[in-house]
Every structure is written in structure tokens, then in C-alpha cells.
Amino acid sequence: MAQNKFKGLGVALITPFRNDGSIDTEALVRLVEFQIRGGIDFLCIMGTTAETPTLSTDEKRMLKQLLVERVAGRVPLLMGCGGNNTAALVEELKNGDWKGIDGVLSVCPMYNKPSQEGLYQHFRAVAQASPIPVVLYNVPGRTGVNMTAETTLRLARDFDNIVAIKEASGNITQMDDIIKNKPASFDVISGDDGITFPLITLGAVGVISVIGNALPAEFSRMVRLALHGDYSSALTIHHKFAELFKLLFVDGNPAGVKAMLAAMGMIENQLRLPLVPTRLTTMEQISAILRDLNIKY
């Protein structure tokens, strides 16, 4: 039976770009080292926050190789591998090079809007094709379809290599239903920074975080405190970052966290179309909060 290695603070890694639009590999290496030093538990690469739809096949291949070599087994790597063409996704899973990758994060098919049975059959095919553990990803705000607790639990019970779900539905009742009724070998991971604390108190095992790109030490401390039952200390940190949680997403993701990283001097504030940088007012608010928090980086 596959084990879930993806517990604690996982960071949904951004892709830094230079002003000419190319990938800034030097900034990426600095960012990875900053996060590992900060105490993260795993990295999620080539997910939504990485602007993966705008990366070429060659760029994805280069990034995967660079990250596998740089991380060198120090933390587990979870790699985005999803799509809305089931047959093409199955081929990718069967024929891809998964050396150095510890699991795949597979998002619900977007745009097609499959039924619950369609979602089940899609992930059944994914589970049967994948040579490494699978983490489901439910994010209806992006895909246009919500995977219900019933479908998630059915998949969790039927396939040993489906080890967890990144839940970003925003529906606490649904998440609690999964946590309450899941098999012992299956975990729930928060897909939203802002609800990580309450979700851990209900039984989630961690988060795949956006804010962790910029504040790995602080956010990993909150996650660790919550997982160890020190809810009072964890809640203090959660409240400290409440305003930042909102600002990071008001102009879309990863525009907010890239603005924050740019304010910290770690990257250029560049995104690829159709995404654009945050508004100046948001950038100023993020910079002001960083100064108030007096976080050293």
C-alpha cells in the first residue's frame, strides 16, 4: 500500500520569469534553497501556482530536471500531472520519466464538466496508469466542477495508490465529511492557506501553500504547531497573516505571491499572459504588511 509522504507544509512553487519573459533559473534555485532552509516538508512543482499552462514542453522538462537535481531528495516532490483528456493523461503517466518524483498531483478535468461518474472513471484510469502515488486535486473555482465527498471517498477506498486529496473547494462541510469517513491510509490536505488552521483542527494533515513561497519559516511553524495540537500558538500566527491571505488572491494567483516575493527582492515581478501583475495598490498594501510584520529574509 502506497504511503502519503505529503504532510505538513508543502509549497506550491512559483516559476520566476526574467523581464524578457524567460525562466529565471537562478532565482528559482535561490527560492528552493530559501524554502528548504525555512523548514518546508515537501514541494509541489508544476501546479497552478507555477503558471504551468504557459510553459512549453521543453521548459517543463528543464524545470523538472533542475528541481529534481537541486532538491536531491531533501524533501519529497509532488508534481502536477492532470488534464481533461483522459487518454492523453494516461499515456503521459505510462511513458513519462518519474525518476526523482514522489507523487503526482492530478486536478479534476477542467472545462469538460464531467459528471461524478465521469470524475470517478477519469481518476480510476489515472490510478491504474500511475507508477507513483496519486494526490487528487479538487478546485471547482478553476475547473468548473466540484468532486463530491462521496466520489472522493469512493476513489480513496478503491485505489491504494490514491493517497490524499488537495481540497480547495472552500466547502468545510464537504472536507469534514471526507476526513470523518475516509480510510486510514488516505489524507486530506488543505488547498487554501486561509483555512489551513481550521482544517488541521478537523484532521487534515497539512497544506499545499502559496504563501509558503515567501514565508516558509513562519507558515511551517504555524502548520507544525497546529499538527502537534498547540492550537493557541498556531491561531496567533494564523491571525497575524489573515490580511496577507486576502491580499495574495485579490488579483489572482500567483500574481499576489509574486508581488510579495518581488517586494522581498527575490524575483522580478513578471507573469506570463493571460496573467498580469497585481495592481499597484495591492502591491503597496503587501509591502506595508511585510514591513509591519518585520520578517527577516
Description of the molecule:
The chain is α/β, with parallel strands linked by helices. It has one domain: TIM Barrel (Alpha-Beta Barrel), CATH 3.20.20. The protein contains 13 helices and eight strands. The protein has an eight-stranded parallel sheet with strand order 7-6-5-4-3-2-1-8. Strand 3 (77-80), helix 3 (86-95) and strand 4 (103-107) form a beta-alpha-beta unit. The longest helix is centred in the N-terminal third of the chain and has 15 residues, at 57-71. The model has no long low-confidence stretch (mean pLDDT 96).
Mean pLDDT: 96
Residue stretches low in confidence (pLDDT < 50, at least 5 long) are none
Q: Describe the oligomeric state of these chains in a short phrase.
A: single chain
> Radius of gyration in whole Å, from Cα?
18 Å
| General shape | globular
CATH architecture: Alpha-Beta Barrel
The succession of helices and strands, N to C, reads: EHEHEHEHEHHEHEHEHHHHH
Q: What's the number of helices?
A: 13
Query: How would you sum up the major sheet?
Result: 8 strands, parallel
**Cα distance, first to last residue?**
40 Å
How helix-rich are the residues, as a percent range?
40-55%
| The CATH superfamily title | Aldolase class I
Strand order of the largest sheet: 7-6-5-4-3-2-1-8
Which CATH C-level class is it? Answer: Alpha Beta
How many domains is the backbone divided into?
Answer: 1
Q: What share of residues are in beta strands?
A: 5-15%
